[in-house]
Amino acid sequence: MELELRLGDRPPGRQLKNTTAATAAGGGAGGGSGRQNRGLNLGFCVGLVGNESSCPAELPVRLDLLPLSLGPRLAAPSLGFPWASENTNLEALGRGLDVNLVPEEGEAAEVDPAISSSPPAETEKVLSRASDEEENSGARKKLRLSKEQSAFLEESFKEHTTLNPRLKLALAKQLNLRPRQVEVWFQNRRARTKLKQTEVDCEYLKRCCDALTEENRRLRKELSELRALKTSHSFFMQPPATTLSICAACERLPKSSALVSGAEAARPPASAFAPTSAKPRFFDFADPRPAPANQPSAAS
DNA sequence: AAAGGCTACAAGATTACATCA
DNA sequence: TGTGATGTAATCTTGTAGCCT
Known about the structure:
Blueprint: E1 2-8, H1 19-25, E2 41-49, H2 76-79, H3 90-93, H4 113-116, H5 120-133, H6 147-159, H7 165-175, H8 179-237, E3 242-244, E4 259-261, H9 262-266
The structure holds a DNA duplex.
């Protein structure tokens, strides 16, 4: 049985500036903020060869990443999707910070009717351009989305983890945000989902590691006990210098009926370790974990 | 068909700001 | 009131895919 699991804190000092280097070191599971002491370095590599029973039965829980700040989970029907309902009144829901408001005039979220009638591919290009053009901005100002805005975005994220230009604009218009803000929110949301899922995977692997370590310890103890038993047995019984070797696999005498030493007789033949087709002996590498939450469907 | 430029977008890394204990 | 920790919006960099010439 072999297990290799490397987990560790991010080394002190600055983060790698080079993305490829960082992802290579982290097995593609990099991430995290730029500060130190902010949780795990989520890069890990693992190799498992062992008994299926070695891993904890409970599998990682599929994450529900709805912000705790939202309190009890908001039901989708109660919110309604902004692009599905023209009657949704955000003002009635109550707005958060006014700094999130987009200037009414020159609002790029207004879709030109001509654009709406364009072919899909062309439309998306035009819409994307339109959303970029309103990046006219001045100083960087950190805004805080209201709970309602976050809830809307969350509900939308449950439907689609990625945005298309039309949806981006619809959300932006409905939530009175800039399309860029919606885009950024989705980017960050995907990153958070991945981070959380990686943490869950990490916990799961740690439990596997603990279970395998415990089993390893148990087997070593059993082995030492058997060796001790054998030693005392040979001391008192003085077994014959040679004994018949019986194949452990077929329980028959070899053709040659070779006489081997006691030590060799105690060692099972290599064939005894050969995996049988009936029951796999080693850890099945088929990933037992659930798919990450909000995984984009292949259809979309 | 192959090559190169352009554009859009996603992921990852990082920064900067807001909030809270 | 000051401060560090934390959450997250925003920005930057890089890689990639699709389209066009």
